[in-house]
Design brief:
single chain; 4-stranded parallel sheet; 114 residues; alpha/beta
């Protein structure tokens, strides 16, 4: 299994293909498994292409860097992922709400579904 980030050439090829298909889709669903494809640069381009096309982007995140997902329509972390993204321990509903508000505010305009 290869988990190293993809190179810029492959990222550019991915974005070219994405642009070709944008007219045929209603939105983009991204499930990040931290396997190397979804580099910060590729995510930024993917979100940008979708926004230019007026298409929503829904992301199931992975990892610690919430900034990679800025600009997405909706981010859907589970409680564990929300804790990782905010650096908080989440033990109950109230802590989930507090961390969710924090992440939502940090993402500036991205909806959040935990």
């Amino acid at each position: 299994e290869e988990t190293a980030p993809i190179g810029p050439e492959l990222a550019a090829e991915f974005v070219r293909a994405l642009r070709e298909y944008m007219a045929t889709v209603n939105g983009i669903l991204v499930s990040d498994y931290a396997k190397g494809l979804l580099t910060p640069g590729l995510l930024e381009m993917l979100i940008g292409v979708a926004r230019e096309s007026g298409k929503p982007v829904f992301i199931d995140p992975k990892g610690l860097d919430f900034k990679r997902y800025r600009g997405a329509t909706c981010l859907k972390p589970n409680r564990l992922e929300l804790g990782l993204l905010t650096g908080r321990t989440i033990r109950n509903h109230q802590e989930t709400l507090e961390a969710g508000r924090l992440l939502r505010d940090q993402l500036g305009g991205t909806n959040l579904l935990v």
